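Reading a protein record of the kind used here takes only a little practice. The record below shows the convention in full.

——
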Amino acid sequence: MGTAIYVLFTLSITVASAGVTCWIVQRTMARRRQEQDLVARQSLERLRSLADRVAANVDEYTSRVDEISAALCAPEGKREAAVLAAVSKLIDANRTMRVQLDSAEERLHAQARQIESQAVEARTDALTQVANRRAFDDELAQCVADLAGEGRPVSLLFLDVDHFKKFNDAHGHQAGDEVLRQVARVLRQSTRETELVARYGGEEFAVIFRGTPMTPVRHVAEQIRLAVGATAIRFEGQELHVTVSAGLAELQSSEEAQVLIQRVDAALYSAKKGGRNCIYWNDGATSHRLKLNLTCKRQAGPPDDVSALLGEEWQCDGDLSPDSPYHQADALVSARSAFLDDLIRRMAHFRRDAAPLAMLLVQVDRWSQLHKAHGEQAAAMVLRVGAQVINANMRDMDNVSRLANDTFALLLPGCRLAGAQQVASRLRQQIAGCRLPRDAGVASMTATIGVVEATEGDDMRRLLQRARNALQVAIDRGRNQCFALDATVGQVSNLSLPLEMIGQDIAPIAVEQVSNLSPHPQ
């Protein structure tokens, strides 16, 4: 009966976990905007349904145990047969309950990841992919508390696109949307990941500089103004340019958030009145024009490839031209510039809100040899199949891009290392199980995968480098494997099993200490 007690105890933990998760959903619902309520209610209902099913399974299992206990009290002459039958039934009941428990636990983890991702999305502006007004209000309120409790300074910058209505009238609202996206991109590239960039409303943006007094922020603000003006916005064959006006102020002691916003608004109004394409700062009583003799040193947007981040050997020959053999593969995934933009935004969420974030690097094994032996068309076909398999396993909020000729990068917001390991294992199995068209030159393909989760101290470059290290470990161990690098303990989990076990459930089977990581994938 010890096994029965253990299973009942495990079931209690599962039901309790469902209750805790329901509480998380309810708390999340309270913070979301009205349009997010339906999604949250659906998530809550699914969790309640799951909890009800688990409770029903507990009742059923308890009834089965009672039946077994009664059988054990049979007359002495029949006790041996009764005991054997009872043990057989108990084993079957334990096996059934274990399957039900595993299924419930998997669904709970999946639902929790979805809730975390939805919470992040609820604080993001859909058009520009920077923080929305809700996230801005929460961050500023926390900054006011930090100043009062710790004396930590904070500066606030508002920027408004000049003559935006006239721009929309002249070029159309789609061109206006592209302007807003590019301005947001300049802001992300011109600020640190710990600084919140938000779309305050319409064509107005805000940047909260937590822990930074106004004096150094003046230089950053001027660099942003110059960078926006120098950015060429290409839209439907045109090269467009816009400028911004800005207002700046520092939070003063005992000042409320709304008062700070009013002062920054006053400075912004002065910038518009003073001719636009300039910055005014407010000292608490008066707004003054910012006069700095700076030149634009910032580039708008991240590099188009990762060679600047990880080295020149990370090249990608594909493009979106319909004539390119890689077109079909690359059309299934994000452009590298868009992927890096999303990575910047997700890292900012992680640094600011501790929002979980995982990354996978999926490298098609021996792709260079395939390219050399069978040509570009065959190599492109293999990449297309890989992209299709990856897409089939991704959620809407995930992002996939081809960062190198043979390597895809997957960004999984709201996902912890354990969840990313499961995704990697499933991808490896499915890719290895693919049967390629005859003109691919080979019958099948395999992939090697590195897995990491963002941890404290990570920036975009460090996260990419750690993912690359995890990939290299898997390559060094023979390819067609998945390795997850846990930065908190300096270990890698080997998730690979023999190919004949494809289709079966797999879990980490070894944990090894990582040392002397080779710096470059082969």
Remarks:
- Confidence is low (pLDDT under 50) at residues 20-35, 297-305, 490-522.
- The chain has three domains: 2-121, 133-289, 307-513.
- Residues 2-121 form one domain.
- The chain has 15 helices and 15 strands.
